Amino acid sequence: MSRMSSNRFSVADQARQSHPIDPSEPFNLSWVTGKTIVITGGASGFGASFFKKWATAGANVIIGDVDDAKGESIVRTVRTATDNRNHHYLHCDVTDWQSQVNFFKQASKLSPHGGIDAVVANAGVVDVKAKFNEPENLDMDDPPKPDMRVIEVNLVGVLYTTHLALFYLPRNPGSEPADPNKSTSNIEESPRDRHLLLIGSMASLLPIPQQTLYGAAKHGVLGLFRSLRITAFTKGVRVNMVCPYFVDTGILTPAGRMLLAGTSLAQVEDVVEAGSRLMADSRISGRNLVVGPRLSIVKTEQGEWQYCRKEENQNCMEVSLWEVQTDDLETSDVFMRRVIGLMNAAQEMRGWILWTKDIAKVLFTWSKSR
C-alpha cells in the first residue's frame, strides 16, 4: 500500500497520498475494532448500513440524525445484536452549526477512549421540488426564491462536519498522524486513527438532469475532497471519498426509478464494502472510489477494459469499484501549480521597470482627464 515515487518533489508524496487501490486485494475489517466512528445521517440509508457493518466488526459507532425515532430504534437493535453499549444515537441537524457542535462534543465524551477516530460526512437529501432557474409561470412579477435546502444539507452541512472533524480528529488520544507507509502489523498495533470519509455521488462527477442544486452540492463535496487531500495531512488526517452510482435506497426518487427502469443499479452492500475498505485500512489516504453496478469485465491486450460474459471468457471478473482521479495530484494539480508558478515568475521578471511604466500610464491618463 505504500507509495514510493522516484520524484523527490512528488506532490502525491508530499500530500501523503497512498498508492492506487486494488479492489481485488483483501482487507481486514477487524482493523475497525475499538475505533470510535461518528456518522452523520446515520439512521437510514448508507449511514445505517455503515453503522451495522462496523458495529458488528467491533467498532463503537455514534450516529447523528434528525429522525429521533428511527435513530434510537436502530441503536437499540445494534446494541442487542453486538452486546455493546458503546453505540449511541444523538440528535443532529447538520444544517445547524450549534447542533453539530453539540453532537461532536457529546460524541467525544461518549467515546470509550475520549476521542474520535473517524468521521463520516454522510447526511444528504434529494428534493425533486427544489426548482432552480425553472420558473413554472413566466408571467410572474418577481422571480421565486429558490429552495436551498439541498445545498444546506449536502454542502453546508458537510462543510460544518468537516470543520469539526479537523478540530477533533487531531486531538484523538493515542492517535498517530496518517501514514500511507505503515506496515500491516503497525495498523494492528496502533488502532487509533484520524480519518474523514466524505460521501459524494456520481453527481460529483457528472451532471444529472433537473438536479441542478444536488449536482452543485455534490460537485462542491468533490472540490472539498480534492483540496483537503493535499492539506489535511498537516494535521495528520487522512481524507477519502466514496461516490456511489444510483443505488436502490430511499434517496432515489420515483422519477429517478422510472428514468433508470431496465438499467442496473449499484448495490448498497458494495457501497458499504467500499467505505469499509477505506475505513479499516489506515494506510489509505487521498483516494476516491466510484461504486457502480456489478459488471463482468476483462482487460484487453491494449490494457483497456471491456465488457465480457463469464460463460464465454474464463478471464472475466466481476467488479463494482472503480478508482477515479487516480493521478490528479501528478497531473492536473501539478499542472496548475506550474501554470501559477510561471505566472508568478513572469510577474517577478517584469520587475520595477514595467511597474514604473504602468504607474506612468495611470498618472498620464489621470492628468489628461483633469
UniProtKB/TrEMBL annotation:
GO terms, molecular function: oxidoreductase activity
Family recorded in the similarity comment: Belongs to the short-chain dehydrogenases/reductases (SDR) family.
Keywords linked to the UniProt accession: NADP, Oxidoreductase
Region ranges (Disordered): 1-25
Domain of life per record: Eukaryota
Name by which UniProt lists this protein: Uncharacterized protein
Pfam family, one: adh_short
